[in-house]
Amino acid sequence: MSEANQEVAQEAQVEEKSSPKVFYGDIVGNGLWKQNPGLVQLLGLCPTLAMTVSLVNGFSLGVMTAVVMAASNASVAPIRQWVPTEIRIPVFILIIAALVTIIDLSMHAYLQSLHAVLGIFIPLIVTNCIVLARVEAFAAKNPVVPSALDGFMMGFGLSLVLATLGGIREIIGKGTLFSGIDLVFGPSAKSMILTIIPDYHGFLLAILPPGAFIGLASLIATRNWLAQRKAAREAAMSVAPQLATH
After folding, report:
1. DSSP state of 195
2. CA 36 to centroid of chain Cα atoms
3. Which residues of 168-203 are buried (b: 16+ CB within 10 A; e: fewer)?
4. 8 A C-beta contact, residue 59 and residue 177
5. Residue 219: how many CB atoms within 10 A of its CB?
6. Cβ(55)–Cβ(166) under 8 Å?
7. What are residue 214's phi and psi, to 5 degrees?
């Protein structure tokens, strides 16, 4: 048994040495912009399109997803050397399911109104391809701290997309912002709801499923346009010194 443990420890040390150096700035940038799950990877579109009727609903579900992703990555990273390749997917899903169950029961106990609004989309975080993708692609190959940060930033990047899309749809569809915030902070928080467009009769298309597709497409197009402008500026700056030398 001792020889087997030594072999496992040696394999773990070799894997740690062979793993690439982790840059935390790259992890943050990938989660928020370069590899944003909602705008670039286009993963988890079902909750993105279904729960973004308002800013509060979208951001709440995004935060729950971020917590699950950070916790699942942090749970998988320490045991990745001891999970056989043949059963790693079932083991990862079991860990994710346990964490989602904890969050689901906690929300049912302390945030019943919000839990009723989000409904089935909380348990469905277990099957969200974003969570399993980051566990498999990052946490299974990196230490605990970078893995936890990667999971949280990917989830937080998705939260920003859900909040932005939900805010746009809420303003255009209802003329308000922060509608439903009393579901999180109680009835006294109704004073925080902002009326952006007074005497507004609403625009039904914005809060229907087609409005979600149009809004998400607009965000993706805006993100791609900004990325292309940045790439063009960087290319122009790299060419300028070369022209100056000739």
Report:
1. E
2. 8
3. bbbbbbbbbbbbbbbbeeeeeeeeeeeeeeeeeeeb
4. no
5. 17
6. yes
7. -65, -45
Provide the residue count of the chain: 246
Q: Please tell me the number of Cα atoms within 13 Å of 103 on its side-chain side.
A: 29
DSSP-assigned beta bridge partners for residue 177: 194
First to last CA, the chain: 69
Which alpha helices (H) appear in the chain, and where do they start and end?
2-18, 24-29, 45-50, 55-76, 88-110, 112-118, 129-134, 144-174, 182-185, 204-207, 209-245
Helix (H) or strand (E) holding 194: strand 194-195
All structural domains of the chain with their residue ranges: 27-237
The answer to whether 129 and 47 have CB atoms below 8 angstroms apart is no
Is the pTM value of this prediction over 0.90?
no
Rounded distance, CA 181 to CA 79, Å?
Answer: 39
Encoded tokens for 95: 């860990």
Q: Which residues are 176's β-sheet partners?
A: 195
User: Degrees (nearest 5) of the Cα angle 152, 26, 242?
Assistant: 155
pLDDT, tens digit, for every residue of 118-159?
A: 988 999 899 888 899 999 999 999 999 999 999 999 999 999
DSSP letter, residue 79:
G
